[in-house]
Amino acid sequence: MDGFHDKAVLITGGGGGIGRATALAFAHAGARVMLGDVDIAAAEETARLVTAAGGEAHVLQCDVAEPAQVEALVQTTLDRLGRLDCAVNNAGIEASQEGLARLPLATWERTLAVNLSGVFYCMRAEITAMRASGGGAIVNMASALGLVGFVGAAAYVAAKHGVIGLTKTAALEYATRGIRVNAVCPGFIATPMLDRAGVTADPERTAMIAELHAMRRLGRPEEIAGAVLYLCSDAASFVTGEALVADGGYTAR
Ligand SMILES: NC(=O)c1ccc[n+]([C@@H]2O[C@H](COP(=O)([O-])OP(=O)(O)OC[C@H]3O[C@@H](n4cnc5c(N)ncnc54)[C@H](O)[C@@H]3O)[C@@H](O)[C@H]2O)c1
């Protein structure tokens, strides 16, 4: 996709599967990227790949559950890139797989802190920066599990439903001020997150999860990057408050 020449793009969780694919897609489209990630080595590897592809990338270590670190990330983006045109609030952690009654309180709190409050802290700082420069586009990484429940994922599902609510509300509040706010709802995507959840190493579990999708396969990170770039592009100039499903038919059933 073209149209991002010289645009300044911030991506949280830029070291991970979807974040990395999104950074590379933006770089190929001509954008300059700022990568925030709690795992600085992973973000640096993404930056190396972006640079090797001829793009410009900057990194900063940031835990999105820490508002002060998020403020510093957005300020560093402004310092390094001069402005903020697009922001992809993608950092997230996986479901812990315990049933609700056995879910440790600390797991609940950390999942909500990263996957929901983190998006709020990011949008708060990003909207302030975008208002100063006349507008922009924000994409929050929700999930198909922001639309339906899933056994063993209470905190994750609650957080992702919350991300969609935050997205719609921010979209309404800033619609006339040049800021579009949308979400993407991926199905199961083959990334390190699914590796850690024990899915990709186990062919039977992979097949079982794949079967949940009408397309009978997992998604690829690049397929989510495509949805993100569309929502950030001028092609989506009349799109705001949308939770765009990219789930191989998972929720169509
Ligand atoms: N993989 C899937 O099946 C899937 C499906 C739907 C939605 N998602 C969402 O997509 C997003 C990206 O997931 P992924 O599959 O690429 O996972 P991933 O684990 O490959 O990448 C996530 C990245 O976020 C970073 N991160 C984690 N906690 C952070 C924090 N507190 N602050 C900053 N960075 C942090 C990690 O270090 C990692 O680089 C997440 O929000 C996830 O919930 C993933």
UniProtKB/TrEMBL annotation:
Keyword Oxidoreductase: yes
Gene3D superfamilies: NAD(P)-binding Rossmann-like Domain (3.40.50.720)
InterPro entries: NAD(P)-bd_dom_sf, Sc_DH/Rdtase_CS, SDR_fam
GO molecular function terms noted in the UniProt entry: oxidoreductase activity
Keyword Glycoprotein: no
Pfam families: adh_short_C2
Keywords: Oxidoreductase
Family stated for the protein in its record: Belongs to the short-chain dehydrogenases/reductases (SDR) family.
Stored PANTHER family: DEHYDROGENASES, SHORT CHAIN (PTHR24321), ESTRADIOL 17-BETA-DEHYDROGENASE 8-RELATED (PTHR24321:SF8)
NCBIfam families assigned: PRK07231.1, PRK12826.1-2
Name assigned to this protein: Short-chain dehydrogenase
Organism listed in the record: Candidatus Chloroploca asiatica
UniProt lineage: Bacteria, Bacillati, Chloroflexota, Chloroflexia, Chloroflexales
